[in-house]
Design a protein that fits this description.
Elements lengths: L7 E7 L5 H12 L2 E3 L1 H11 L5 H20 L6 E5 L5 H17 L2 E8 L2 H8 L13 H10 L9 E6 L5 H11 L3
Parallel strand pairs: 1-3, 1-4, 2-3, 4-5
Helix pairs in contact: 1-7, 2-3, 3-4, 5-6
């Protein structure tokens, strides 16, 4: 059964391979929300330019701006689920401010969800079939480097839910999130 509460934005953050998109799909269905996966915003730039090309960052920024501009104008009762992989650094805190601004402009509740799992499980999931075709990270050495050099961004919304997905099925993760946000 789909339930549409007053406008809500759920932002799911986590390392690549922690289950953000799978859980996001489940949450969007349950909440009757629109899902905007981070690859919706990233893949056009990935398809056209290498990460080192300045046009890559420029296109990503323009796509994000267009999506957020239109999300601000969506029906006031519309709910959104976003996925992201944001680190606790100045650039990614600035990116998260887009979600804060969107929630404020829409008068929506913003829930920050942080998904993580044990590094070994994370590396195992990173090479699941279909990830490379979706232009998702599959390089376990790169994941290990990210985990060693960065912390995930957490706690910038009024309500934050933190879940370790190591031993959980996506359905269990979604159920825990919904229980914590009162749905």
């Amino acid at each position: 059964m789909t339930q549409k509460p007053a406008s809500r934005i759920v932002h799911i953050n986590g390392w690549p391979g922690t289950g953000k998109l799978t859980v996001g799909r489940l949450l969007a269905k349950r909440l009757g929300a629109r899902l905007i996966d981070n690859h919706t915003l990233l893949n056009p730039a990935e398809a056209l330019f290498g990460r080192g090309n300045p046009l890559h960052a420029s296109l990503r920024q323009q796509i994000r701006q267009a999506v957020f501009d239109h999300a601000m104008r969506a029906d006031s009762a519309e709910c959104f689920v976003f996925t992201d992989a944001l680190a606790d650094d100045a650039d990614d805190r600035a990116t998260f401010s887009w979600y804060l601004d969107l929630a404020a402009a829409r008068g929506a509740d913003l829930v920050a969800v942080l998904l993580d799992c044990a590094p070994e499980e994370n590396a195992r999931r990173l090479v699941f079939p279909g990830r490379s075709e979706a232009l998702k990270l599959t390089d376990t050495a790169k994941l290990q480097q990210l985990r060693a050099n960065y912390q995930l961004l957490r706690g910038l919304a009024e309500q934050t839910v933190v879940i370790d997905t190591t031993e959980l099925l996506p359905e269990q993760t979604a159920a825990r999130i919904l229980a914590q946000i009162g749905v």
